[in-house]
Specification:
single chain; 838 residues; alpha+beta; Lipocalin; elongated; membrane
């Protein structure tokens, strides 16, 4: 116990701080950190160094070198800097390195030195140059704040969605502020800067002078500022005082006099979540000081030039040879390991140790905990403390103690214990020297497992990421599948391997893994200039809807058309056809369609509704005279309005039908041309509407208009059969109620349709009197039906009996109703009986 707490340093009466080594750095730095631009990402992130930055004492011929290392000092990338002078480096939340140049251009690089993109901070920054820059993080993303040579600030709160805001000018500002920092308040980025003894807060529209409450008098200038989660602010003054308060500058937390007036190199906050203690770490060349709300401070001697990295729950400190972590001792660890502690967790840990020694003291410790009813609390303390330990041996001791205590509890839920074991295995794996991500338990929970997996993938540590997914049993789509997809996207960038080998390796590894899109991998291959590899990868993509768009993008339109046709998705085929139409000349486009019958058919359907002229060209090219004739007929009714144009269209249709050897269609078309001309003449001579009527309707219209001779002449001209003509005339005259003319017409000659239709038409017009005239003229075979139509059931019965026709007898019997037809029904029944006797 005493040895374990040897590196604990008290800050006041309520908090301890400890500093332990994370790694012995493996890098081989040729220069001191002070001679480099340095940027280290939070959450155990990588370290970027720009060696030989632009300084007057350096020779102009020496090019800077940008180097990226893991937190353990393992080299990740090294590249010769060939761009302009760099003012500042910083890491985004996605672990992309932002390099702010003097001309206001920001270059973005990946972890392995791969160039991603660049953007400019505006023309004003370009004209006035960059004096200083800060990379900061907000809830919206990663932002950049620029101080120009004109002493104006330009800010973008999110580099992923670049929106530049020029901050208002501070009146009378003739030189750079002594210190400044970005703030995020009320969902907007602000700038806090110090000019002499004054503090200015700049928002998007105006500035305001702010005064820290309770600040010691006599301050001439502020030398350094530090912000923690945009909630707390620390100010280092020229008097050696450190003021700590809220970032809104409305409340003072504490103030400390460090009795050192020399400006420090760095000042960062050192706090942990849910802690009431607030402390600031200040670094000079060879001294490190931890100050808070206590009269004393904690001081460390720095043997080497060091750099501070603020974290969520502490401060990382790396130098030429070591990488350490300074933080406040968590409550659970403090209660368990504090000297002479009688906390439940401390007693349970001792009980477990005595149990391993087979000592009876284990029982005494357990009884003491159980008598106080604190065994559950003791187990929870040991589990929580294990999470905050960096050394695996201490983690095991605490988890053994928790497991030992669980054995004496009836209903202790195992979830927290199991989850902590899983989390610590993951943390110990990523903390390994060769991985170099020294996450604490608090940082891990804040970061989430998905983000950690993303960071392993960005470091190309695919096997470890997959092992973690399998160990935690994450869903495939969120875990293994996603990682394999990233691996495949990296694999296609290896240009020293042939396309076939890469495609085969990817397919063997991925297979039909759910959640993996081969089209996304193929798109990455195409983006790397490997078109043939992309096509090979698309062969493994089962969804045609994903294949076709990329093939079109790669200008493999004919292959895209084949894939679309294979899919059976007509919408997809139409998409490719329209793309081909715009890409190819007319002749090549039609030739491509001729080789794809389904596509040709679909395109014809499209042209029927959208592009009629194109449809005609298609029929002409294919010598499809039958369809061409049909096209001209449709055009004569839908496109042409003048009678001459319609007749001309029909004439072309007739010619096409003759070429197609369809004489019937050709003759019918010629007849239609004659009819159109005749209808036009009828309109001119008689008035009325004749155009576009059918031949039958034209005849009927003439009869209804009293032009019987013209109707008969028309019937002769177009060879209308007599039966049809009689039907047309019969219907028309009945419609006119011209019964006299109808009777004359019926007597003009023998009716080719018989006289039953006359009866039916008269009854349809509700004229029984006229119907009876024709019923007597109906032939014997239809006599019964005619008599029944006019309602003469008795006479119909007599005729049926005379004919001795069973069907007619049954028909008449079905029409006998009520008492009035009773005698007739009896008569039919007697006739049937007599017929049966014979």
């Amino acid at each position: 116990m005493d040895c374990y707490t040897a590196n604990w340093n008290p800050l006041g009466d309520s908090a301890f701080y400890r500093k332990y080594e994370l790694y012995s750095m493996d890098w081989d730095l040729k220069e001191e950190l002070r001679d480099c631009l340095v940027a280290a990402a939070p959450y155990g992130g990588p370290i970027a160094l720009l060696r030989n930055p632009w300084r007057k004492e350096k020779a102009a011929s020496v090019r800077p070198v940008l180097e990226i290392y893991s937190a353990s000092g393992m080299p990740l990338a090294s590249l010769l800097w060939k761009s302009g002078p760099v003012v500042s480096l910083g890491w985004s939340a996605e672990e992309e390195l932002l390099c702010v140049q003097e001309d206001g251009v920001v270059l973005v690089y990946g972890l392995h030195g791969d160039f991603r993109r660049s953007f400019s901070m505006g023309n004003e920054v370009l004209q006035n140059r960059v004096l200083d820059a800060r990379i900061f993080h907000t809830e919206f993303g990663s932002g950049v704040a620029i101080l120009t040579g004109a002493h104006r600030f330009t800010v973008s709160a999110n580099v992923g969605d670049l929106k530049l805001r020029r901050m208002p000018e501070v009146p009378g500002l003739q030189s750079a502020p002594s210190c400044w920092t970005p703030l995020c308040q009320e969902r907007a980025a602000h700038i806090l800067l110090a000019v002499g003894p004054e503090l200015y807060l700049l928002d998007h529209t105006t500035y305001s002078i702010v005064t820290p409450p309770g600040l010691v008098s006599g301050v001439i200038s502020f030398l350094l500022m530090a912000v923690f989660l945009y909630l707390h602010l620390a100010l280092f003054t020229d008097t050696g005082h450190i003021w700590m308060g809220t970032a809104s500058l409305k409340e003072k937390l504490c103030e400390f006099n460090c009795n050192i007036r020399a400006p420090p190199k760095q000042m960062v906050w050192c706090s942990r979540p849910r802690s009431k203690e607030r402390a600031v770490v200040v670094a000079w060349e060879r001294r490190l000081m931890v100050v808070g709300d206590a009269p004393e401070s904690i001081q460390f001697v720095l043997d080497e030039d060091s750099y501070l990295v603020p974290e969520l729950d502490g401060v990382r400190i790396f130098s030429h040879s070591t990488h350490e972590f300074l933080h406040e001792v968590p409550v659970a660890s403090e209660e368990i390991f504090k000297i002479a502690s009688m906390a439940p967790g401390a007693l349970l840990l001792e009980a477990q140790k005595e149990y391993e020694k087979e000592s009876q003291k284990a029982d005494e410790y357990l009884r003491e905990i159980q008598e106080l009813g604190q065994l559950t609390q003791a187990v929870q303390q040991c589990i929580e403390a294990a999470g905050h330990e960096n050394r695996p041996d201490m983690q095991k001791n605490l988890l053994r103690a928790a497991s030992f205590g669980k054995c004496f509890l009836d209903r202790f839920p195992p979830d927290s214990f199991v989850r902590m074991c899983q989390d610590l295995r993951v943390l110990n794996a990523v903390r390994d020297f060769h991985i170099g991500i020294p996450l604490t338990y608090s940082q891990y929970k804040q970061l989430t497992i998905q983000v950690l997996l993303d960071r392993l993938v960005s470091r190309r540590l695919y096997p470890l990421a997959i092992q973690i997914c399998e160990y935690l049993r994450l869903p495939e789509v969120q875990g293994v599948s996603r990682i394999l997809a990233h691996w495949a996207c990296y694999k296609v960038q290896q240009k020293d391997v042939s396309d076939e080998d890469v495609a085969r390796a990817i397919n063997q590894k991925l297979g039909d893994t759910p959640g993996v899109s081969y089209s996304d991998i193929a798109a990455r291959a195409y983006g790397c200039g490997r078109t043939e590899l992309a096509i090979k990868l698309l062969e493994y993509e089962p969804r045609s809807g994903e294949q076709v768009p990329l093939l079109l993008k790669m200008k493999r339109s004919k292959l895209a058309l084949s894939k679309a046709i294979e899919s059976g998705d007509t919408d997809l085929v139409f998409t490719v056809l329209l793309h081909l139409k715009n890409e190819l000349n007319r002749g090549d486009f039609f030739m491509t369609l001729r080789n794809q019958p389904m596509a040709l058919s679909l395109y014809r359907q499209f042209c029927k509704h959208q592009e009629l002229e194109t449809l005609k060209d298609l029929y002409n090219q294919d010598d499809n005279h039958q369809e061409l004739g049909s096209f001209h007929i449709r055009a004569s009714y839908t496109v042409e309005e003048r009678i001459e144009g319609r007749v001309a269209a029909l004439h072309m249709a007739a010619d096409a039908f003759y070429k197609a050897k369809n004489e019937f269609a050709a003759k019918a078309t010629e007849d239609q041309m004659r009819l159109l001309r005749l209808q036009r003449r009828l309109e001119d001579e008689l008035g009325g509407q004749f155009l576009d009527l059918s031949l039958h309707d034209t005849v009927t219209t003439l009869i209804l208009g009293g032009h019987n001779k013209r109707a008969e002449q028309l019937a002769r001209d177009f060879r209308i059969p007599d039966k049809r003509l009689w039907w047309l005339k019969l219907t028309a005259l009945a419609h006119l109620d011209d019964w006299e003319e109808l009777e004359k017409f019926s007597k003009s000659k023998k009716s080719p349709i018989g006289y039953l239709p006359f009866v039916e038409i008269c009854m349809k017009q509700h004229n029984k009197y006229e119907a009876k005239k024709y019923a007597s003229r109906v032939g014997p075979e239809q006599k019964v039906k005619a008599l029944l139509l006019v309602g003469d059931v008795a006479q119909a019965a007599d005729v049926a009996i005379e004919h001795r026709n069973e069907a007619e007898l049954s028909l008449v019997l079905s029409h006998c109703t009520g008492a009035t037809d009773g005698a007739t029904a009896d008569k039919i029944q007697r006739a049937r009986a007599q017929a049966q006797k014979k």
